């Protein structure tokens, strides 16, 4: 829907680009950020029934799906879309800036390719030291999810989320946080 393009572009500029420019400078933006955003109105479906929220293409393009249903008056929907952009941008950055090897070891035995399994609830993922069910799919997705959640949900949210689980899950989340920040 044409009426979704301008608000999406404004959100990309104000919530994504200006955030990085403020923290890392305009040279960083010119060097690393994607040069193209492709916007799709409908979702892209996986064979298991889940939907793709976004993808990156060659480190230069971010594709965003499901924009026709995006309600810009709903902060949760806007946050979800912005988390997707930060998540995908993290994958772009990880093509030139490696994820520290220690990150993959924090929850190494708890990754599962089938992150959609009914045995992987949001509560289970949190208890194991993940910020989302999807983070359990691989260490690269875990790192991107950690980055996106920290940037969009913020420190207060993260602290409350990490404290809401037992000592083991809390320690894993805090270790991952430290590695992402580093």
Question: Nutshell version of this structure?
Answer:
The protein has 182 residues and is mainly alpha-helical. The protein has seven helices and five strands.
The total beta strand count reads 5
- Tell me about the largest β-sheet: 3 strands, mixed
N-to-C span: 40 Å
Percent range of helical residues = 40-55%
Structural class: mainly alpha
Fraction in beta strands: 5-15%
| Count of DSSP-assigned helices | 7
Q: In angstroms, what is the radius of gyration?
A: 16 Å
Sequence stretches where pLDDT stays below 50 over 5 or more residues = none
Apparent shape: globular
Secondary-structure element order, as H and E? HHEEEEEHHHHH
Structure overview:
With 182 residues, this protein is mainly alpha-helical. Helices cover 54% and strands 9% of the residues. It contains seven helices and five strands. It has helices at residues 5-24, 26-32, 75-93, 101-106, 122-128, 139-163, 167-181; strands spanning 36-39, 44-45, 51-52, 54-57, 61-64. The strands form two sheets. A three-stranded mixed beta sheet has the order 1-5-4, with helices on one face. Helix 3 (75-93) packs across helix 6. The longest helix is centred in the last third of the chain and has 25 residues, at 139-163. The chain is globular.
Keywords:
5 strands; 182 residues
Secondary structure topology:
Layout: H1 5-24, H2 26-32, E1 36-39, E2 44-45, E3 51-52, E4 54-57, E5 61-64, H3 75-93, H4 101-106, H5 122-128, H6 139-163, H7 167-181
Parallel strand pairs: 1-5
Antiparallel strand pairs: 2-3, 4-5
């Amino acid at each position: 829907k044409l009426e979704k393009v301008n608000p999406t572009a404004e959100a990309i500029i104000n919530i994504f680009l200006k955030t990085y420019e403020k923290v890392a400078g305009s040279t960083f933006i010119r060097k690393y950020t994607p040069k193209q955003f492709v916007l799709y109105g409908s979702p892209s479906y996986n064979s298991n029934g889940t939907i793709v929220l976004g993808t990156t293409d060659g480190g230069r393009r971010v594709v965003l799906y499901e924009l026709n249903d995006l309600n810009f008056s709903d902060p949760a929907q806007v946050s979800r879309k912005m988390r997707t952009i930060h998540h995908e941008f993290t994958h772009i950055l990880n093509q030139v800036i490696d994820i520290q090897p220690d990150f993959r070891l924090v929850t190494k035995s708890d990754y599962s390719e089938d992150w959609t399994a009914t045995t992987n609830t949001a509560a289970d993922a949190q208890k194991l030291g993940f910020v989302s069910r999807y983070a359990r799919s691989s260490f690269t997705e875990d790192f991107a999810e950690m980055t996106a959640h920290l940037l969009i949900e913020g420190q207060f949210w993260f602290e409350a989320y990490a404290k809401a689980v037992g000592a083991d899950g809390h320690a894993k989340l805090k270790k991952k946080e430290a590695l992402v920040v580093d």
